TrEMBL record:
Pfam family membership, one: Peptidase_S58
Tree of life domain: Bacteria
InterPro entries in alphabetical order: ArgJ-like_dom_sf, Peptidase_S58_DmpA
Protein name in the entry: P1 family peptidase
UniProt similarity note: Belongs to the peptidase S58 family.
Origin species: Longivirga aurantiaca
Amino acid sequence: MTTLADLGVRIGTLPRGSTNSVIDVPGAGLGHATVVYDEPNPPEGRGLARTGVTVVDLGGDPFLEPVPAGVALLNGAGELTSRSQMDEWGVAETPVFLTSTMQVGRVYDSACRLLIEEQPRIGVDDFLIPVVGECDDSWLNDARWMHVTHEHVRDALAAARASVGSGIAPDQGAVGAGTGMSCYQWKGGIGTSSRVLPAGHVVGVVLLCNFGQWDRLTIAGVPVGQLLGRPAHVPPPPAGSCLGVVVTDAPIDHRGCERLATRIGLGLARTGSTAHHGSGEIFMAAATGLRAPRGTASAKAPLTGRELDPYFEAVVDASEEAVVNCLLSAHDVTGVGGKTVPALPREAVAELLDRHYAGPRA
């Protein structure tokens, strides 16, 4: 796995966390279940799978102690379940599950089953609406078949829980929900990055990257896409989507989380995104610093106004870097119809950055 830090490039002035990932946020986790198989006769088998599930764990038990959360919509051709609940109540009550478009129902159902097994008060004290987001991986994945199973969701959730506090950087690129995704018409998938604030809080970002046009790709201000030139492979359509999740341990309320989530779009724009008509750029943020027992309010005062400025900066910088980490970490994937989406050529990118990048070094 290669990241932007490995190339000696630094985005912004805030320091990265120790793993430069969302797991640097105390209590947060990130785990994947990757689903890859080939069965050439779908009527008798399961078709071709290049898909999966990724889980962002918010730590603790968000059903008993909901986490202040908010959603921002840049372009709405996509889905994030529980969005209306977050709009109304201002909290998230489950981990965040990411997958491909046609698998949302399966993941939602499995999330309910798994969380009910863990928490006997679900369905007794109140109902549960899992947070499930998606992007379309049908360029590489045979989306007419239901590939994701209950076991895949279980494994991704278990992996996310196991990553909490591990200090081990999670996998990125063509893993989990990102297995079949493309970014800037190269291989995309999952990207993550983190920033440490002067107050000691941490902001982590996770992106499911499935968007962009090759000639707009920009890395740390360098027009890498144009300098590389048109890809030799047959590229996926230049639209797609991006699901983004911000997690922080800062004391930020629902409205502040909405504002944090909005800033993911600025990070994407720095890399060249214009949020095409067919894209689903849907972002959420969750802040564990104000979580409190169900039905009660935190005694802490939320950060407001200009106090949020460094957190906005952290989200923008970490989002920009998460896109690049996704691209640099991905590997070539061949999928449905024999189509191949290669990884961004890392050595060529490193040479271009050495030659053209004039900013601070990592």
